[in-house]
Amino acid sequence: MALIDIRNLTFEYPGSVEPIFKDLNLQLDTEWKLGFIGRNGYGKTTFLKLLMDKYSYEGLIIKPIPMFYFPFSIEEYDLMTLELLDALQPDLELWKLQREMNLLEVDEDTLYRSFSTLSGGEQTKILLALLFAEEERFLLIDEPTNHLDTHGREVVAKYLQKKKGFILVSHDRDFINNIVDHILTIEKSKIVLQKGTYDTWEKNKNLEDQYELEQNQKLRKEIRRLKQSAREKAIWSDKVEDTKIGDGPCDRGYIGHMAAKMMKRSKTIEKRYEKAIEEKNKLLKNIETIEPLQMNVIEHHAKYYIRAEDFTIAYENNNIFKPIEFTIESGDCIVFRGDNGTGKSSIIKAILGEEVPWKGKLEISKGITISYVPQRFSFISGNIDELVHEEKLDKTKFLTMLRKLGFSRGQFEIPIENLSMGQKKKIFLAKSMCEEANLFIWDEPLNYIDVISRIQIENMILEYSPTMILVEHDKRFIDKVATDIIEL
Fold first, then answer.
1. Which SMART domains does the record cross-reference, listed alphabetically (predicted)?
2. Residue % of the chain over a pLDDT of 90
3. pLDDT digits (tens, 9 = 90+) for 31-83
4. What mean pLDDT do residues 398-419 have?
5. What is the pTM of this model?
């Protein structure tokens, strides 16, 4: 057993209002399978990069073995895959890589194809194989599920179950639940390390929040009492001070002297109350409120919003999937599910009227208004004010939605291209929630989205029953919101 020892770690970005980490102390066993969760923007990736010495920090990080980070930084995607892997790890032993590829169900042929031609899932699995091809190192695996389909997640989960010695960042609750033996969580005002799985953390967090809510009721009553007492002392002092002024026979010098003493005492008591109030307010900070989200769902008079018969995507007369039939009516939440490359996003493009080759029958009722969240969003840039103006959004409603999704006010000033991937995705989701629409089409909406926000989105869909088409791989999410699943 070897320990990663973190002592008094303090780090803040230049210009930040407050540090990301302050005087953090942790000990992590290098044989743990450690799940790492928390809101987007709370500092998970920053923490991993600090372990990799990517940033300057105060404090001490003692690392007994080398650390490697996933995803790799890749610049030349057009290289042959084996050539790229050799560049990433020059001492690579091919037989060890092939062993791991076999466990991850990756064909050896992929080594001799251009890396850019591999699917996102193939790229993820072959890079994970590279990570685990060598021993005696601690691995930092940052959100590997974002490009994995349902089957790919099952394969990688089964693979990681048999491994040890890593930190895994993931927001897919079932995925992380099946793999880890410890959980590290960045919560609202503290970092918590405990033995167990995601379900362990959720159960303990709910119990803690319930206890804190009960204590907070008592604290708020105590704070109100302290504030009332402070006001009464101030009023009493003012009344004594007022007796210095008047026409009656009395020793005004003595009264003035006593009033000054009482005023000083009153101010001392008031400061003591203020300090007590401040200390008690600190105890109200860690509850992660799952605030309700809203949608602008508009009903349409049509019985069928969309109707498809004998429908398929076909390139050069080759069908991507077997012809399917489906109808979408008001209140339906349809999930298209299948492996990467089976045509899920192409179906969405066909519905949106984009140029994709399809066959069969696809009817969309006239007047249907669609709100769309794309799978890819790297093109977004500028600032939030510009986005609000270009998209003609209600600024107050839009910013309120982002706040509920975990944005701090300071993050509204950051250029969008400098935000995390999760925060960028939340901008698209919040935009869609603010739009009035009959039909909401979201292509892999949960990629990069934290656990708390996933629960918020689940609750919102269940409350508003919007008519939706989703492409998604998060099993727990699908089980909760889908009214029908179409397998491709």
1. AAA
2. 57
3. 999 999 988 878 898 999 999 999 999 999 999 999 999 989 888 889 999 99
4. 88
5. 0.77
